Amino acid sequence: MIETRMATERAFLIGVDWERDGWDIESSMAELAQLARSAGLDVVGMLTQRLPHPHQSHYLGAGKLEELKARQAITPYDVVLVNDELSPAQLRTLEDELGVKVIDRTALILDIFARRAQTREGRLQVELAQLEYRLPRLTRMWTHLSRQAVGGVGLRGPGETQLEIDRRRARQRITQLRREIAEVRAHRERYRQRRRQNQMPVIALVGYTNAGKSTLLNALAGSDVYVADKLFATLDPTTRRVTLPSGRVVLLTDTVGFIHRLPTMLVAAFRATLEEILEARVLVHVVDITHPRAAEQAATVRQVLAELGAAHYPTLTVLNKIDGIEPNLSPEELVREFDLDGDVVPVSALKGTGLPLLLERLEAKLMEAERVREVTLVLPYDQVRMLHLFHERGHVEDVSYLPYGVRVRGRFPAYLLASLIPQLHPVVEREGQRRPIERMNRYESHIPSPQPFPKHSV
Fold first, then answer.
1. Are residues 323 and 385 in the same domain?
2. How far is 226 from 238, CA to CA, in rounded Å?
3. Cβ count near 3 (within 10 Å)
4. pLDDT tens-digit profile of 176-199?
5. CATH code of the domain containing 319
6. For residue 24, what is the DSSP state?
7. Minimal CA–CA distance to 331: which of 315, 354, 313?
8. Model's pTM, two decimal places?
9. Where are the alpha helices (DSSP H) in 317-407?
10. Does residue 109 sit in helix, strand or coil?
């Protein structure tokens, strides 16, 4: 049996330095090279040019374009990767001039997503994003698209070009995909509704791609989620149960990583997935502190969260991979050195450093987000089954058995008290004072109902 393998394609990278997003050209091109390697390409060269903006027809200036053609003889390449999203005209002109395949940054990211998507939901979302990207670019994809299809006998007429047929089929497929993704969103919403009924709090891991979110999930939950030193290794949200220091159980969700210049069609297509972030009570922003552009990456994540409508969510910043930087730096020194801000915890998810402190800070942040109250109440013996809810979703400090019921003292979230106290009829105690049922409403007035986070369209 003869094993055949496709030769690795050689990629040449080009980019225009026009400082539109705050990233310097060196860092941006280094990330493009990392994307290329994640897509299985061999980077053989790089060319950049400083311009006020990319050329309207062929991206690079005329002189640099000639230089790029000359490089083909010195360093042969099979594909040219462009560090921006190209218009259909720019794409067509570059391919005609260079005689090789040209892929822009958006198409490259879409290709990586297509390679990594494992679930049906992920594949649907990626296919939708790819079709919406390709639809206006169909004119350059196949040479046969200018042919006309004519009818049979008695049906002859001007006909329909193959391009029009392919566009129509693409639009039909986009409509079908949107319908199927809407069904996925409805299924996810039903699942979220069950979680809301169970009052199980959700904590979402967010961050730049390859920051170590999946490794952190595995370390905290003892799970075996797929981990790789690749961009976008995780596309489908993964949820695991994590026990906090008080014994309370929460759901920790790993989400798709962000990247600067994240294609807008990807954000729209992955709306069903990204809505997991909007359901969280607390966000854990994971930052790769060893990356030379850690501050810029953190700013990109905050920008995407703002676009999703989650900028105001309670957030704990985790400075990951501290085993790879200078030891003995305090969190304050790390924040100053890497120009970060917010409530931070330094950890090494790979080695387990700082995880106990992270769980403590995470629980404190969750209590703050849920407006946890310290109360004492009495469960009548016919309602004692509720005791396990207080153990599971709060922190029970003391339990004592009285002739008329079970007295429970502890710290509990406001939503739990607001939902359960109306079911307790004989006695509620607070601050050492017994209150009969007729004064229940006065007690409840001290417990503000939790305000749901607003839904935002992506």
1. no
2. 10
3. 4
4. 988 988 887 787 777 767 766 666
5. 3.40.50.300
6. -
7. 354
8. 0.70
9. 331-337, 355-370, 387-393
10. helix
Domain boundary residue, one of 113, 146, 180: 113
CATH of the domain at 60: 3.40.50.11060
Whole-angstrom Cα distance, residue 322 to residue 430? 45
CA distance 302 to 340: 11
- And the tokens for 30? 């280094």
Tokens of 113: 């997503």
Residues 323 and 394 in one domain: no
What's the rounded Cα separation, in Å, for the pair 294 and 300?
10
Determine the Cα–Cα distance for residues 205 and 220; give it in Å rounded to an integer.
Answer: 12
Number of domains in the chain: 3
**Statement to judge: residues 391 and 257 lie in one domain:** no
At 18, which amino acid appears?
A: W
> CB within 8 A of 86, min separation 6: which ones?
59, 94, 102, 104
For 76, the domain range is 10-113
Q: Give 439's pLDDT tier (boundaries 50, 70, 90).
A: very low
User: Are 398 and 340 members of one domain?
Assistant: no
Q: Would you state the structure tokens that stand for residue 81, as one six-digit string?
A: 């990767």
With vertex at residue 179, the alpha carbon angle to CA 175 and CA 181, rounded to the nearest 5 degrees, is: 115
Beta bridge partners of 436: 427
CATH number at residue 437: 3.30.70
